[in-house]
Q: What sequence folds into this?
């Protein structure tokens, strides 16, 4: 029996900033952001979108394909948690009408959280093949206005259904994990924005990629030329590009071209949306699936990285007719529907979103109908509504 990814749902908020506008406002050469960083736009969440509402909205994309009574596990990976105690997954479980006997919780290890969830879900479904698992990554990357990390912000969510005999990608046995207690990027409890040692974080990311990729190859006997595509956590597109260059530098021309072309396809969505932390690697997967032509049984390698730090490399095989399980038109409409913000509008929305709304103040959303949003707190309890 094969277990893997059966459905992928995606959500990003309805506003964005253009990197050329941001470069002009920060007195930078636009090519630094467009070429040096590799980003074109970044999604911006206002006060009414958070990890919970984005996770619900991503899952709504495929909810009609799910047998709700068979969902035994719901895991949310996030580093934009809304509560220090109650799991974001409980609000989501309630909105999705999942059964009371679902096991549900939130996991945190920076951007690695969703991969941790997928590995737990894979093993769970292998033991309980009649059940499925939903794994969500949902995050808002915030470094602050006029900071070095500002150009690498973003917001969004990916939701994945893991089940037996999946329609999109089976998950192979074997993985290589690597961890170290370091301080490249973190967010203390008293800070609404991340703190980062930017240049160090770039070096550590590449170091973790080398460790996990080499260990995976040794463990499984696989070679770079076996892969149709290598996917990366994309804090910004240039970061993954650098890792991909390391992977392909000694390969023949055909392998180099295939992995470079498929990297470009995998980065299309991140280039438009920015960093969505836990879900970023899975946005790369969605982008590859919807922007490349993959042969049946194509082998896909995935490198997950969470600062702090935890890395893991694993792989999957593409299922025949996977295209039929995708929601390509809806996903592309989701990206195209966003409204462009001027830089002063973005700064105002950004700063307001950092503030906890006064208790009892009802928030209104300008999202399209059907979407969920955070509507404020009543007696300090977070309220979520569907528009
Ligand atoms: N035209 C073309 N390229 C230009 C250019 C121009 N006019 N001007 C500069 N560049 C290039 C630079 O040469 C550099 O390229 P290389 O990386 O190849 O050297 C690139 O643009 C970026 O320039 P800088 O390094 O000078 O940029 P910076 O110091 O202003 O900040 C950053 C870049 C460190 C990534 C910063 O945005 C940041 O701190 N981001 C957040 C941290 C981050 O994302 N780290 C990634 C690894 S950690 C991780 O993956 C976890 C996570 O999600 C956070």
A:
């Amino acid at each position: 029996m094969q277990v893997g990814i059966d459905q992928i749902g995606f959500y990003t908020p309805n506003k964005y900033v253009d990197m050329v506008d941001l470069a002009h406002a920060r007195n930078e050469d636009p090519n630094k952001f467009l070429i040096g960083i590799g980003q074109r736009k970044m999604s911006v969440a206002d006060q009414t979108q958070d990890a919970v509402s984005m996770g619900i909205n991503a899952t709504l994309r495929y909810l009609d394909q799910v047998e709700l009574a068979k969902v035994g596990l719901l895991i949310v990976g996030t580093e934009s948690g809304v509560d220090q105690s109650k799991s974001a997954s409980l609000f989501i479980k309630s909105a999705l009408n999942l059964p009371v006997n679902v096991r549900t919780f939130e996991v945190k290890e920076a951007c690695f959280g969703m991969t941790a969830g997928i590995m737990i879900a894979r093993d769970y479904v292998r033991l309980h093949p009649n059940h499925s698992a939903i794994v969500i990554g949902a995050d808002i990357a915030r470094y602050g206005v006029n900071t070095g990390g500002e150009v690498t912000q973003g917001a969004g969510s990916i939701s994945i259904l893991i089940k037996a005999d999946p329609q999109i990608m089976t998950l192979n046995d074997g993985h290589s994990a690597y961890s170290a207690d370091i301080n490249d990027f973190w967010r203390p409890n008293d800070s609404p924005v991340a703190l980062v040692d930017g240049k160090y974080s770039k070096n550590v990311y590449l170091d973790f990629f080398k460790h996990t990729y080499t260990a995976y190859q040794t463990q499984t006997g696989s070679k770079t030329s076996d892969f149709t595509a290598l996917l990366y956590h994309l804090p910004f597109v240039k970061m993954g590009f650098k890792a991909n260059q390391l992977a392909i530098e000694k390969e023949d021309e055909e392998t180099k071209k295939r992995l470079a072309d498929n990297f470009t396809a995998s980065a299309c969505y991140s280039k438009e949306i920015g960093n969505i932390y836990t879900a970023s690697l899975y946005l790369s997967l969605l982008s590859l699936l919807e922007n490349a032509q993959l042969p049946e049984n194509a082998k896909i390698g995935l490198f997950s990285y969470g600062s702090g730090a935890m890395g893991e490399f694993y792989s999957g095989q593409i299922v025949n007719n996977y295209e039929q399980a995708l929601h390509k038109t809806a996903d592309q409409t989701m990206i195209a529907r966003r409204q462009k913000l001027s830089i002063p509008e973005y700064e105002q929305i950004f700063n307001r979103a950092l503030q906890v709304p006064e208790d009892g103040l009802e928030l209104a959303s300008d999202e399209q109908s059907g979407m969920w949003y955070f509507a404020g707190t009543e007696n300090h309890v977070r309220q979520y509504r569907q528009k």
Summary: The chain has eleven helices and 17 strands. The mean pLDDT is 98.
